[in-house]
Amino acid sequence: MTTEQLEATTTTPAVAYLLTWTTAGTWFSGEQQGANAPFAAKRTPGARRDVAAVSLSVPQRDLVEATIRDCCQQQGWNLIATNCRSNHAHAIINAAADPQEILSTLQSQTAEQLTAGEPSRDSWWEEKGNIRTMNDNDGVQAAAFYVGVILRRI
Fold it and tell me: What Gene3D superfamilies does the annotation carry (predicted)?
């Protein structure tokens, strides 16, 4: 058995990716935010303090979610769940694509749509986000319940 064959049999492919990204100027490196503080603090290393904090309105949040759905459909990615809050967005996606590329595409597409409605703002999202790889269906189901159900009630 070659090294490549061994790697192919021992590597578990990702079932889905949980992508989370924050609005510009909202969370700064090392700051603790709420009950999910350890996760939040890691999400945005080096948020820009020179950018006014972005807080998305309900119509803007709806636009972000619609854009994520449209983008996933156009790219052939399976969108499992999405939710946009006032200062961050979540998407759970199953795709045979680089998760960093998926995150970058979603950030740029949503920023483009938001800018169409508010051209005076030139920055909507922090440059980086968080990517969690989920390798089992139980993890995907739990994340989908959180993103698709629990956050809708908040």
Answer: Transposase IS200-like
Q: Which residues pair with 132 in a beta bridge?
A: 18
CA–CA distance from 41 to each of 124, 146, 147 (Å)? Answer: 19, 19, 19
User: Which of 46, 70, 45, 66 is CA-nearest to residue 56?
Assistant: 66
Which percentage of the chain shows pLDDT scores above 70?
Answer: 75
**Integer Cα distance of 146 and 14 in angstroms:** 19
Per-domain residue ranges of the chain: 13-153
What does the pLDDT look like over 100-142, one tens digit per residue? 999 999 999 999 999 999 999 889 999 889 999 999 988 899 9
To the question of pTM greater than 0.90 for the whole model, the response is no
CATH code that applies to domain 13-153: 3.30.70.1290
In a 10 Å sphere around its CB, with 0-12 CB exposed, 13-18 middle and 19+ buried, how is residue 14 labelled? middle
Q: Tokens 């939710």 belong to which residue?
A: 83
Cβ atoms 67, 110 nearer than 8 A: yes
